Amino acid sequence: MSDSFDDQARGSTLRGARAELLAAAKTAGAWTPTFPLAVTDPTPASVLILFGRLDSILARSDELTVASDLDVLLQRRAATLSSHPGQVSFPGGGQDADDADAVATALREAEEETGLDPDGVEVLAALPEIPLAVSNFLVTPVLGWWRTPSRVAAVDHAETVEVFRAPVAQLIDPANRYTSTLSRGGETYRGPAFDLDGTIVWGFTAGILDALFEATGWALPWDQSNERPIAPAEIL
Question: Fewer CB under 10 Å: which end of the chain, C or N?
């Protein structure tokens, strides 16, 4: 894929971010995270990891290794859902019979959940599938670049209660990072987490973001010994 005039108009840093995402996608087999529990006869699913440019929203962090107006699209799931209730996630869900492929699933689900216009999304890559035991999904992360951002909001409040664009500079700020711990069945699971002004990103979504930030070279050193248990309100 070659850089377009639109890329040049956006500025060299953002053009660099897109290029770094493409480079990371080419080596995804080496860094895509794995999760400790196995799945049995999983349902195919996809999520859309969509990076773009914030509009008038300022990142609450100085420009670090990425542009202060680079963002990623996230949502908060409804507390009544049977799978990952109340958690912050990427838009996505299970494959429908009419979906042509994993990319089609990710774009359809993102449109249904956030109202975005899929025509404004440039698909950079479909990353390797990741088994997700809690929901028994086999998830394909689809990496996208938001060439023409459209208005987003929670479409169906029975599924999604909030849609927001998180500044990447705020996510990678070491002050906003810690290791989450979750104890179940006599086992304690640890993973990266992000605290965005009290909005906690953990689990599958945080694991993907953590690995992707490392692969792109955007990550900054942070204190992994800083551990915090996942609160009941965050698990629901």
Answer: N
CA–CA separation, 67 vs 216, rounded Å?
Answer: 13
Closest C-alpha to 102, from 136, 74, 138: 138
Distances (CA, A) of 234 to 2, 28, 99, 138: 42, 29, 32, 23
Closest CA to 145 of 61, 53, 47, 44: 53
Contact 90, 75 (CB under 8 A): yes
DSSP state of 218: -
Check if the beta carbon of residue 145 is closer than 8 Å to that of residue 124.
Answer: yes
Q: Are 171 and 76 in contact (CB under 8 A)?
A: no
- The label of the residue with tokens 């429908």 reads 96
Confidence (pLDDT) at 183 = 83
Instruction: Return the percentage of the chain with pLDDT > 70, whole number.
Output: 82
Residue type, 107: L
Task: Please state, in angstroms and rounded to a whole number, the distance separating the CA atoms of residues 6 and 20.
Answer: 17
